[in-house]
Amino acid sequence: VRHRRITIGAGNSTGILVGGGDVHCVRVAIDTVSPNPMIDLVSSVTGTGFTNSAFVRTVGSGDALEIGRANTDVTIDFTTIRSTAPAGGALAVTGGSRATIQNSILDGTTSDLRVGSSSSTATLRSSNLRPLKTTVDPSGTLVSGTGNQATAPLFAGPTDFHQAAGSPTIDAAN
Q1: Looking at the predicted structure, is the pLDDT value of residue 141 above 80?
Q2: Where are the beta strands (DSSP E) in the chain?
Q3: Residues linked to residue 111 through DSSP beta bridges, in sequence order
Q4: pLDDT tens digits for 28-47?
Q5: Which of 69, 55, 77 is nearest to 8 (CA)?
Q6: How far apart are the first and last CA of the chain?
Q7: 163: number of Cβ within 10 Å
Q8: pTM for the whole structure
Q9: What radius of gyration, in Å, describes the C-alpha atoms of the chain?
Q10: 3-class SS of residue 132
Q11: Which residues contact 132 (CB under 8 A, 6 or more apart)?
């Protein structure tokens, strides 16, 4: 999926449904006012990647992006994952899945990153998230590499998630 904007309205279903194989999103923006997942990986997949994309949840509860299938490997690079919903988190890695997050911004209302149970693993490098809004289940693993930041990013506006002038995330990627 390349160069697409997907808006999921209230009562609508999933934005991208992956039933097998892998998906690569490049310059994709998905926003939702639906309680349903933006991307649903309905079976174990490997080689899935999100590059230079944005995932935004503005209402309801749940995470802006959840990776929750066993034996699923996902790479997230140069991507903003944000939830401004009252009970929303940015990214959840659960169910035995593995995610490598690099050069990305995780910004949620209730959590920036949640690493769940069943031996889930998240590896972070040169990314922006707040340690106080990061939770790791005892059976989950968080590998924190170099170059991560904790200073909150500045966005252009309440619904414009481009980086604003003076944001500490500008030119901070490796």
Answers
A1: yes
A2: 2-8, 16-18, 24-32, 39-41, 48-51, 54-57, 61-67, 73-77, 80-83, 87-93, 98-102, 105-107, 111-115, 121-125, 134-136, 141-144
A3: 89
A4: 666 666 665 566 555 556 66
A5: 55
A6: 25
A7: 19
A8: 0.84
A9: 15
A10: helix
A11: none
